[in-house]
Write a structure and sequence with these properties.
single chain; about 260 residues; 10 helices
Length: about 260
């Protein structure tokens, strides 16, 4: 068990550092890594994907909480926008934990792999949406929140990769969009974590120390290092060649996507 916790600590350190430096969600690193680890530990193949998703979202709740505090102190969170999106995001995240049952493992692999390749291309070309219209009215904003929350929970990500472009497209300044995204990511991770916990409760073949589809050793090991290394990663943006590292990481994302699409 000690070696297993050490492994999760290393994973948390890497995910946190890259997330802090490159501004990407840790879920894109955590989910495929946890799937690989859980498979190597001999966990049931029937629950590995859900266990990785639930555990990843639970860790994001802690790291997002730290980011929310930082952005709030800097007065960079547009709370009216967050409050408008909050119920829809939390509901969507919970629904995402239910939608996983509509996907076979093969189709979920296609979805996750395609998203990784999309993110890889986005990082390579530095794509950013051009500002478009103002924020939509409440019904349409809620619909967008449910959709973003559902996709994020289904992929095990905090939602920043979807929320920031959406808010930027809707003429929210980029810094405030990032701040709002951190608060929205916290809501998504909490809603998704609750969903995976409740839907997995009592599921057979779960490993010891699981709360539904949340594996506590992975959660504690990752959180123990990810928050600290996320701060180091943020500081490293001023001293390391971030553009070159981002290109390398985009290639890694493309390889992960290809594995899920063609070789899993």
């Amino acid at each position: 068990m000690l070696n297993e916790w050490l492994l999760y600590g290393i994973v948390g350190a890497i995910a946190g550092f890259l997330a802090g430096m490159l501004g990407i969600g840790g879920g894109l690193i955590l989910v495929p890594t946890l799937i690989f680890i859980f498979s190597s530990l001999g966990f049931s193949s029937e629950i590995i994907t859900q266990l990785a998703l639930g555990s990843a979202l639970a860790t994001i709740a802690f790291t997002a909480g730290s980011a929310v505090y930082t952005h709030h102190k800097a007065k960079m969170i547009d709370w009216p926008i967050v409050l408008k999106l909050a119920p829809a995001l939390a509901l969507g995240a919970y629904l995402g934990s239910l939608l996983i049952y509509l996907f076979s493992k093969l189709y979920w692999n296609y979805l996750f792999g395609s998203f990784c390749i999309f993110m890889s291309l986005k990082m390579m070309v530095h794509w950013k949406p051009h500002p478009g219209r103002q924020l939509p009215t409440w019904p349409w904003l809620s619909a967008a929140g449910v959709l973003i929350g559902s996709i994020s929970s289904l992929l095990g990500i905090g939602g920043g990769t979807l929320i920031v472009p959406f808010l930027s497209w809707r003429q929210v300044p980029i810094k405030r969009a990032i701040g709002a995204s951190s608060a929205c990511g916290l809501l998504i991770s909490i809603g998704g974590s609750f969903g995976y916990l409740s839907t997995g409760w009592g599921t057979p073949n779960l490993p010891q120390f699981s709360l539904g589809f949340i594996y506590i050793p992975a959660l504690t090991g990752i959180v123990a290092t990810s928050i600290f290394f996320a701060h180091l990663g943020a500081k490293a943006t001023h001293s390391l060649p971030v553009i070159q590292i981002k290109r390398v990481f985009s290639i890694l994302l493309a390889l992960i996507g290809a594995k899920f699409l063609f070789f899993w």
